[in-house]
Amino acid sequence: MKKAFSKVYLSIVYLFLYLPILILIVFSFNESKSKSHFTGFSLRWYEVLFEDELIMSSLMNTLLLAAISSVIATVIGTMAAIGIYSLGKKSRAVVMSVTNLPMVNPEVVTGISLMLLFVFVSSVIGISQGFYSVLIAHITFNLPYVILNVLPKLYQVNANLFEAALDLGCTKKQAFFKVILPEIMPGVFSGFLMAVTLSLDDFIISYFTSGSDFQTLPVTIYSMLRKQVPPSLNALSTLLFVAVLVILLISNISAIRKEKAERKK
Length: 265
Fold this sequence. Notes:
mainly alpha, MetI-like fold
C-alpha cells in the first residue's frame, strides 16, 4: 500500500509539473491563435518566431551575456574560492557570511541598488545603461554560486598534493594548473553551468539594470506579455525547453559513462 501510494503521489506531482509544459508544446504547433482549441498542426508560429527581429536580437543578447558573464564569474569566483580557502577559520567565516549575503538578499533589492549605482556612475562618466551595466550585474550575482561550487572541491583535495608537485620540480603556476585545477574542475564546471543557468533565467536584475538599447529575452517577453500573449512565445518556450532537456541528457549520459569508466579502472 505504501509503495502504491508513493507511486500515485509521485505521478500526481510530475503531472502537475509537466502537464502545463506539454500543453504549451502542443499549442506551439496550433494552426490558429486559439489558446483553448487545437485547430490543426502547423509550423506557422515557428516561422513567425524566427522572422521576429526583436525576439531574435534579444535571444542573441541573452546568449552573449550569459556566455561572457559566466566565463568571467567562473574565473573570478575560482580565484576567490582559492583565496577564501587559504584564510584562517575566523576570517573565512566572516568572508563566507558576506559572500552568502547576495543569495539571501531579495533580487528586487539587488536590482534597485545596482540600478542606483549605475545611474550615479553614468551621471559622472556620461555613459548610459546598456550591455556593460547588465554584464557587471550578472557577474556580481553569479560570483557567490561559483564560489560555493568550487570551495567544497578545494576541501576534498589532499593538502599535500601542491607541496608534492613543488618538490617534484613544478613551479607554483605549474602546480596549480597541472595538479590542483584538474582536481577542482568538476566544481568549476558546476559553477559555470549554474552561472549560465542563472544568467539566462534572470529577469528582475536585468530589468532594473538594462537600458533602452539593450534588452535580454526575459525583459522582452515581459514587455510583450503586457499587451498580449503572442502564439510565437509558445514556440520559443518549446525550443528553450528542448534545448535545456538536451543539455541535461548529455550531461547525465557523460556522468554515467565517467562513473562506469572509473569503476572499470
